[in-house]
């Protein structure tokens, strides 16, 4: 195995239609992860591709009047072009119709046959063609005479046929032992507990061939069977790096360091796949990153459900890096996330344009206006600048740790906390006054801000590569990835000289159409007369109150009451919450502090801006007072 390497994979995508936003999300997470590890000076191999065999493909091809191979060939350019459009820098695009994949799968199967892990028997049960899934007895959901698929909710078909089986049951104890010894195998940890519970209920041997279909990899030694989808598709992670064709490459990259997938296929990757590898005498992946679904109108986004969002149109409307940012930061991997156009627009205007773009613009404009283009560190930093520098180092360390854990959205949140601190430093120093009164102090404030932006740009490069390279270039930093950029940023980023220049606006604001619905735009808080009433205990239990850390806070244009907060709830993810507290608190009062929030209220809009919770406050003679925990509490901790 190669040292200082990083091997990351995406699930391979079923080619019955062009890629949608859900496909992009998984692939983007892999790309961002790969880029972060490139920053660490590691050699990276990033594998993605397409799953092109199975009954569903054959049926879709027949309906289109094409042969299966011709049918799947027609979709490949749409994937490759979309990934290019979004700057997805994969190392290899594998197709399960590739000859090297077919050879590798057949060699793998023959090994299992020879060692007695595969046998022929008869299968009778229910099968979901759209999901390519045999529905186990314990998963069956009956609606009348139909047995429904637990994944997609469609009616299944009863099948009865001869199959080859893999002895999955023989690996039950080994799997449980592995999970016990590797508690961080799956991020988030809750998914691992679901897997362990499933395995403990007992594993049955797994059908790995089909006799009633012909579109697939011929089963070795029996051409009347084709290899069933999971025995075919999962092995792309091995064949894509040389299994069966290039043992040196396989030895270099395996085991995978990170495998990214959606929660709907976690069972296959966390049970079948490790068992396959154990049977093959190969090491297991180091980590599975299992993300939730992107939902539209509270339903999972899916091509088959007809609610898929076109990433190409989003890129045209809002920009590639803007969508990369939105998906990486706003879609929490720990839960399902609702996709909203309004959230994209608010993210661009409030966070990208205001928080980051405006800081760059104010700093560079002020510096150049005062004939300061050459930036150099002062002989002695002031105490406030030293604090900002140390906070920068801490941000780099903590963000990197979150990336390694798989929590990319939290890593970006952590970077944004520092952006807010850099803004606060710039505002507090008032360099527009320093320029008239003290040139040395002015030069120091500009230098500290430029060095902060340098670290911010490097740390956000994996998320927004094009925009951050542009920003770094405007600050006079030639973009090149050092042996370990993280080390460089911590040790010497605040010691270099650079020349800044003015650029066009980094992020253009989006015109937002405010909704006119009276109930949504009404923001006045009313204090009702005290009414004596009783609440049933069962009703109280329905209220979910959590501790949250406020990572960002902005005023809302046109409102004299509302503040918009980004609140980190730990494993529950990041949420946007609006509160009518502007007359009592400023954004600077709130950022970095904790509060108590109700998190299971139905989302609503105020002034057309969505709010996903409620902050708890109290009112007394002195005005509004925030309800806060007594000490520093882990974000997401339950109250009650």
Describe the structure.
It is a single chain. This protein is of the alpha+beta class and 640 residues long. Among the domains are: 340-499, Isoleucyl-tRNA Synthetase, Domain 1 (Orthogonal Bundle), CATH 1.10.730; 518-639, Nucleic acid-binding proteins (OB fold (Dihydrolipoamide Acetyltransferase, E2P), Beta Barrel). It is built from 23 helices and 31 strands. Strand 13 (218-219) and strand 14 (222-227) form a beta hairpin. Helix 16 packs antiparallel against helix 18. The longest helix is centred in the middle third of the chain and has 29 residues, at 341-369.
Question: Which geometry do the CA atoms define?
Answer: globular
Q: Summarize the main sheet.
A: 7 strands, parallel
Low-confidence stretches: 515-533
Q: Report the β-strand fraction as a percent range.
A: 15-25%
CATH fold-type name of the domain at 340-499: Isoleucyl-tRNA Synthetase, Domain 1
Tally of contiguous helical segments: 23
Q: Termini, distance in Å?
A: 49 Å
| CATH architecture term of the domain at 340-499 | Orthogonal Bundle
- Mean pLDDT, to the nearest integer, reads 89
- The helix fraction, in percent, is 40-55%
Alpha carbon gyration radius: 27 Å
Quickly name the level 1 CATH class of the domain at 340-499: Mainly Alpha
Q: What is the number of strand segments?
A: 31
Q: What class, by secondary structure content? A: alpha+beta
CATH superfamily name of the domain at 340-499? Isoleucyl-tRNA Synthetase, Domain 1
């Amino acid at each position: 195995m190669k040292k200082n390497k990083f091997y990351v994979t995406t699930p391979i995508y079923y080619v019955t239609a062009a890629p949608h936003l859900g496909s992009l999300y998984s692939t983007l997470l892999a790309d961002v992860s790969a880029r972060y590890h490139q920053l660490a000076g590691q050699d990276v191999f990033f594998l993605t591709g397409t799953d092109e065999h199975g009954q569903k493909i054959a049926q879709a091809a027949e309906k289109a009047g094409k042969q299966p191979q011709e049918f799947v060939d027609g979709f490949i350019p749409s994937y490759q072009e979309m990934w290019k459009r979004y700057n997805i820098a994969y190392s290899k695009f594998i197709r399960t119709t590739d000859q090297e994949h077919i050879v590798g799968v057949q060699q793998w199967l023959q090994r299992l046959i020879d060692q007695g892990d595969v046998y022929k028997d008869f299968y009778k049960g229910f099968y979901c063609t759209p999901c390519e899934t045999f529905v186990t007895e314990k998963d069956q959901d009956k609606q009348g005479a139909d047995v429904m698929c637990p994944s997609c909710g469609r009616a299944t078909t009863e099948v009865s046929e001869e199959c080859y089986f893999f002895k999955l049951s023989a690996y039950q104890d080994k799997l449980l032992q592995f999970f016990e010894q590797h508690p961080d195998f799956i991020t988030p940890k809750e998914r691992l507990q679901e897997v362990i519970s499933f395995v403990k209920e007992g594993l049955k041997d797994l059908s790995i061939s089909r006799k009633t279909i012909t579109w697939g990899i011929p089963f070795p030694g029996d051409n009347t069977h084709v290899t069933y989808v999971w025995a075919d598709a999962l092995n792309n992670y091995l064949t894509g790096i040389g299994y069966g064709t290039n043992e040196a490459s396989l030895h270099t990259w395996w085991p995978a360091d990170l495998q990214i997938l959606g929660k709907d296929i976690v069972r296959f990757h966390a049970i079948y796949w490790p068992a396959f590898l154990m049977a093959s005498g190969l090491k297991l992946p180091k980590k599975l990153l299992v993300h939730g679904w992107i939902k539209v109108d509270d339903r999972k986004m899916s091509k088959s459900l007809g609610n898929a969002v076109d990433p190409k149109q989003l890129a045209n409307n809002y920009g590639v890096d803007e969508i990369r940012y939105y998906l990486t930061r706003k879609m929490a991997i720990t839960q399902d996330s609702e996709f909203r156009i309004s959230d994209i627009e608010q993210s661009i205007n409030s966070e990208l344009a205001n928080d980051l773009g405006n800081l760059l613009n104010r700093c560079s404009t002020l510096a150049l206006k005062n004939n300061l283009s050459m930036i150099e560190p002062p002989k002695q930093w002031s105490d406030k600048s030293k604090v900002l520098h140390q906070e920068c180092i801490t941000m780099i360390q903590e963000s990197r740790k979150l990336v390694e854990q798989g929590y990319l959205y939290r890593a970006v949140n952590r970077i944004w906390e520092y952006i807010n601190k850099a803004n606060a430093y710039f505002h507090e120093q008032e360099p527009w006054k320093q320029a008239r009164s003290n040139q040395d102090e002015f030069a120091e404030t500009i230098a500290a801000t430029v060095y902060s932006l340098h670290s911010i740009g490097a740390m956000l490069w994996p998320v927004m590569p094009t925009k951050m390279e542009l920003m770094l270039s405007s600050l006079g930093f030639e973009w090149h990835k050092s042996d370990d950029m993280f080390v460089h940023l911590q040790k010497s980023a605040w010691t270099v000289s650079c020349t800044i220049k003015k650029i066009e606006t980094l992020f253009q604001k989006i015109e937002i159409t405010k909704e006119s619905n009276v109930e949504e735009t009404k923001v006045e808080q009313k204090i009702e007369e005290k009414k004596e009433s009783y609440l049933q205990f069962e009703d109280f239990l329905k209220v979910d109150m959590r501790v949250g850390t406020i990572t960002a806070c902005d005023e809302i244009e046109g409102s004299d009451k509302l503040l918009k907060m980004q609140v980190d709830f730990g494993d529950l993810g990041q949420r946007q919450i609006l509160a009518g507290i502007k007359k009592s608190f400023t954004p600077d009062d709130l950022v970095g502090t904790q509060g108590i929030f109700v998190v299971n209220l139905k989302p609503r809009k105020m002034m057309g801006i969505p709010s996903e919770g409620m902050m708890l406050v109290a009112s007394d003679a002195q005005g509004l007072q925030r309800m806060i925990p007594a000490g520093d509490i882990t974000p997401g901790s339950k109250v009650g």
